[in-house]
Design brief:
mainly beta, elongated, nine-stranded mixed sheet, single chain, 4 domains, Tick-borne Encephalitis virus Glycoprotein, domain 1, 2 helices
């Protein structure tokens, strides 16, 4: 540590109100048998714990990279303590204990895409980009961005939500709902009896699909009005059954004339996910939300769907600008992306740089596997910010001649990782390191400054306490308001060079010996003169 500041320590790791806080420049800290940081004098490091910022206005925020943390911690009883970083007591200062740092997983919050969409693609041609993302539990998932050409220089984008997610929502720069989708994932059952019900309600129409191994017909339903269908499951694998459900549901919705015309793109209301035993339900209405639930069991009574069938899920309505069809003109609504003549993005979701300065849009995911929902406002697991490039710049998506080409695909987030160590920055932030490559700030080391450091009272073990002559300590973050910087993995060097000091000592000793010899010689000469005089 450089400068004239001091570390704050205490003789007791878990300080009580009566325990004395001391100050030291002895920065050789080691981990004791209980996981606390302890210096050579036996005192324990004290500081400010850091947690993710949750919007508490009274909390002191600490920005670290793209994330924001706050000085706070949670007691064993669940109470949250907001730290006052001007006070030195056992509430606002805590010890750092490395044994309390467990494993971690980091959810994906950013997705950056750069690709060329061929300019010679015919209308209705499409391209797909698959990306790996992580939920808050560290589970990996695949999400798909689809791009469909709807006119010259015009493309429409949508998402295909991952397995084990119930609802996926694509929002514009202004948080409008551009695309919304629901999904049911079902276990693979190749043989055996399958019974149950899939229920939907869209635009006021209730649709119930009954799965019956004894049904005479493949699919029967009545429309319009409430639609009830019976699907024969005899001899069908789960993938075959899901294909049949999708086909039947699409027919029922079209016959019910719920939205005036069968929507395109993507061309169907319900569709089985290619290569997976799941069905997606695409929202097309800007007036009515769509709810769905399912209760499917096999012969042994095993529940086959991931989603909670009792509660169900709701797919939100689309913004009025982004409904698939304008019923008055029977035409598509606002496009997703338009390109200018030089192949760079001109608008995203109908807005340019003058109306929406940030080109990034958002993807929200509601999970059915117990992970934190990726939604706006959730500090633990916020929505995914998707960057497709800047306006009028070829740094993301482009539409140029040639083939489709993915130039880059970047996303953050990480799978579960175990704690592997710590690092300390010059700003005093202690970051936990995990074997999945994630680093997470967990602690901040404060530095104490005094008006008159020479007035401190010394204790054993290179410890000091404040006195009336030193003045009261002021806590500061490293590098701020005159406080020094912290140098990790380095001890304060001595200002004395032993070689130089020994040389000076020998030189002085020999000079003294020479001077003493001169005096002795002078005394002998004086004695001889006195003897001659006599």
């Amino acid at each position: 540590m450089n400068g004239k500041s001091f570390f704050v320590t205490n003789a007791v790791a878990e300080a009580r109100s009566e325990d004395l806080f001391t100050y030291t420049r002895a920065g050789s800290f080691k981990v004791d048998q209980e996981g606390y940081l302890q210096n050579v004098g036996g005192s324990y490091m004290q500081g400010w714990p850091l947690t993710f910022f949750d919007g508490t206005t009274s909390a002191k925020q600490v920005p670290v990279g793209l994330d924001t943390f706050m000085k706070a911690y949670t007691r064993e009883n669940g109470d949250k303590v907001i730290i006052n970083d001007n006070i030195i007591d056992n509430t606002n200062l805590q010890p750092i204990n490395l044994q309390t740092i467990g494993g971690t997983a980091s959810p994906t919050t950013n997705l950056n895409v750069g690709a060329n969409l061929p300019a010679n693609t015919l209308v209705a041609g499409s391209e797909r980009i698959n990306s790996l993302i992580f939920d808050s539990l560290g589970n990996p998932h695949n999400i798909t961005l689809s791009f469909i050409k709807t006119n010259a220089n015009v493309w429409r984008t949508s998402i295909e939500q991952p397995a084990q997610s119930a609802v996926g929502v694509q929002r514009t720069q202004q948080n409008e709902v551009h695309f919304a989708q629901g999904r049911l994932d079902v276990d693979d059952v190749s043989t055996g009896t399958i019974t149950g019900t899939i229920s939907m309600n869209a635009n006021g129409q209730a649709i119930n699909i009954f799965l019956d191994p004894n049904a005479a017909d493949d699919a029967t339903y009545t429309a319009p009005g409430d639609v009830n269908m019976t699907v024969n499951t005899t001899g069908r694998t789960m993938s075959q059954l899901l294909d049949l459900i999708s086909t039947s549901l699409n027919g029922a919705l079209t016959d019910a004339n719920m939205f005036g015309a069968a929507p395109t793109p993507p061309g169907t209301w319900a569709r089985r996910v290619s290569g997976e035993n799941g069905i997606t339900f695409d929202q097309a209405s800007s007036a009515n939300a769509m709810t769905f639930s399912a209760s499917i069991t096999d012969a042994a009574g095993k529940q086959l769907v991931y989603q909670n069938a009792a509660a169900g899920y709701t797919v939100p309505v689309l913004d009025a600008n982004f409904g698939w069809y304008n019923l008055a003109t029977n035409s598509l609504r606002q496009s997703s992306i338009t390109f200018s003549g030089d192949g760079t993005p001109l608008t995203f979701f109908g807005r340019d740089a003058s109306t929406a300065p940030s080109p990034q849009h958002k993807v929200e995911l509601i999970w059915a596997n117990g992970a934190e929902n990726m939604v706006i406002g959730n500090q633990k697991s916020p929505e995914i910010s998707v960057f497709l490039g800047n306006y009028n710049t070829a740094d993301g998506l482009t539409q140029l001649a040639g083939d489709y080409q993915l130039n880059y695909l970047q996303q953050n987030g990480a799978k579960f990782g175990n704690f592997s160590g710590v690092s300390i920055g010059q700003d005093g932030i202690v970051s936990a390191l995990f074997d999945n490559g994630v680093t997470r700030p967990v602690f901040m080391i404060p530095l104490a400054s005094f008006t008159n450091p020479n007035g401190l009272q010394a204790l054993s073990g290179n410890q000091f306490i404040a006195t009336d002559f030193s003045g009261s300590p002021t806590l500061r973050e490293a590098g701020n308001a005159g406080a020094g910087m912290i140098n990790a993995a380095a001890l304060e060097a001595s200002t004395v060079d032993l070689g130089t000091e020994f040389t000076r000592m020998i030189t002085t000793q020999r000079a003294y010996s020479s001077a003493a010899k001169i005096i002795t010689t002078a005394d002998d000469m004086l004695a001889e003169l006195l003897s001659i005089k006599r």
